[in-house]
Design goal:
By secondary structure, the protein is of the alpha+beta class. The protein folds into three domains: 164 residues, no CATH class; 86 residues, Helix Hairpins (Orthogonal Bundle), CATH 1.10.287; 150 residues, Histidine kinase-like ATPase, C-terminal domain (Heat Shock Protein 90, 2-Layer Sandwich). Helix content is 57%, strand content 17%. A five-stranded mixed sheet has the order 2-1-5-4-3. A five-stranded mixed sheet has the order 7-9-10-12-11. Helix 4 packs parallel to helix 5, helix 7 packs parallel to helix 8 and helix 8 runs antiparallel to helix 10. One of its GO terms (molecular function) is ATP binding.
């Protein structure tokens, strides 16, 4: 209860109302003390009127008048003459004198606070102006015990009333917060929890109905989020089903194309000139189809296996890549050069690193061949204090803007006609599995360069 929004609001409201009442209490108690002293002066003035009416008063009657006034003696100044109107024995010396004619609010608050915290019963002199202009001033002496007791009694009553007011106020605010804020927020939370359990159930989508502007905006934002998420989940489910179907089709199609590839090998040996002329084109078409199926199957896996990291001589891995690609460019004016230092050893999975560099070199080779111009592909590498780097650069025509925008996006980042862009997407995923990065350093008419960055040590840069 206390940890809830409404519970904490209840506690804070009570505390703040009590604090406000305390701030009111201090000037209030000062005003009470002033009224108390003025009342004693007025009573003393009324008692002195009896002496003005009859110059001779019995001692018993004088003592009774002073007791009713709550003072020990009364001095009245009339016509610049001080007259001791009524008097009785004072039990001790006068400790303080207070002139109410000149006292401001701060003085009254200071004197009231000092009296409230001083438990000693003292004799004080109080000076004030007579009521109804019955003289120049009136002065009385009195004890502080009754004054302090009256102040404490008044203060307790004020504090008790303040406590009642604060509790009632806090309870009403508690109910208001429960109705205006907590209940709508709880409704939003319940909707979110219900939606999380069954996102496909349309009944879990919130229907904005809050009257508070901020809550209404939150509900509308949640509605938009739930709508977009539901559509995304439906699309994801459809894509997953489509991906499963494509993987199955690609698997079976790859087997069929592999068989067809065996037949084309025999066709190439035919003596028929037309067959010999058409066979290479057929072989290339089937080879591209097999490559597409293999790439689709590779990307369609849930995830690539985690790399087995070992210290690998990089030059040997790149030699295998260059030897494989040189077979494909035997009749083309494309040179592939391995400039990896023989003593460079990197921390990587050799099989996965072979696939990454192979994809980059193959993409560069295909771009150069498509440009119908001689070109150069160079693989270099080196090391920094915190990482190893491998660079694959070419002298090709550069990447088109569309390919740059979707460089590592599968089925969108293809450069050559008929390409799928799976090679770069798979390569980027493999490098990321090493804790590294694959990025495009630059591209343009002077050529393109990709850089692989592999972390040293624990894999952090």
């Amino acid at each position: 209860m206390l940890n809830s929004l409404s519970g904490r609001f209840l506690i804070l409201t009570t505390v703040f109302v009590m604090l406000a009442e305390v701030l009111i209490f201090v000037p209030s108690i000062a005003r009470f003390r002033e009224d108390y002293l003025l009342n004693r002066l007025e009573r003393a003035q009324i008692a002195s009127l009896a002496l003005l009416a009859d110059d001779m008063l019995e001692a018993k009657l004088e003592a009774e008048l002073l007791e009713n006034a709550g003072v020990f003696n009364v001095v009245l100044r009339r016509d610049e003459v001080r007259q001791l109107m009524l008097s009785s024995p004072i039990p001790s010396a006068i400790s303080e004198t207070y002139d109410l004619r000149m006292a401001g609010p701060m003085v009254l608050i200071k004197d009231a606070t000092a009296r409230l915290f001083n438990p000693d019963d003292q004799i004080i002199r109080v000076i004030g102006a007579p009521v109804r202009e019955a003289g120049l001033l009136i002065e009385v002496t009195m004890e502080t015990g009754p004054l302090r007791s009256a102040m404490i009694d008044y203060g307790l009553r004020v504090l008790a009333l303040s406590a009642v007011i604060s509790i009632i106020t806090a309870f009403l605010l508690f109910l208001a917060v429960r109705v205006v804020l907590v209940r709508p927020i709880k409704g939003v939370v319940d909707t979110m929890q219900r939606y999380a359990l069954a996102p496909e159930d349309a009944r879990g989508v919130i229907q904005p109905n809050a009257g508070v502007t901020e809550l209404r905006e939150a509900e509308e934002a949640l509605l938009m989020l739930q709508t977009e998420l539901t559509q995304a989940l439906k699309q994801r489910e459809r894509l997953a089903q489509l991906g499963g179907a494509v993987a199955k089709v690609s698997h079976d199609l790859r087997n069929i194309l592999t068989s067809a590839q065996l037949f084309t090998d025999r066709i190439e040996g035919s003596e028929d000139p037309l067959v010999r002329r058409m066979a290479p084109k057929l072989v290339n078409s089937i080879t591209r189809a097999v490559s597409l199926c293999e790439g689709t199957l590779a990307f369609g896996r849930a995830e690539e296996p985690a790399p087995t990291l070992t210290m690998v001589p990089l030059a040997g891995v790149i030699d295998d890549v260059v030897a494989s690609e040189r077979l494909a460019v035997a009749d083309a004016c494309v040179q592939i050069t391995n400039e990896i230092p023989e003593d460079l050893v990197v921390r990587a999975d050799p099989e996965q690193m072979f696939r990454v560099v192979m994809n980059l070199v193959r993409n560069a080779r295909q771009a150069l061949v498509a440009s119908n111009k001689p070109g150069q592909i160079t693989v270099t590498a080196g090391e920094r204090d915190d990482s190893w780097w491998i660079e694959v650069r070419d002298t090709g025509p550069g990447l088109p803007p569309k390919a740059q925008e979707n460089l590592f996006t599968p089925f969108q980042g293809g450069v050559r006609k008929g390409g799928t862009g799976l090679g770069l997407a798979i390569s980027e995923e493999l490098v990321r599995g090493h804790g590294g990065t694959l990025m495009l350093k630059h591209t343009g008419p002077e050529g393109t360069a990709f850089e692989i960055c592999l972390p040293r040590g624990d894999g952090t840069f």
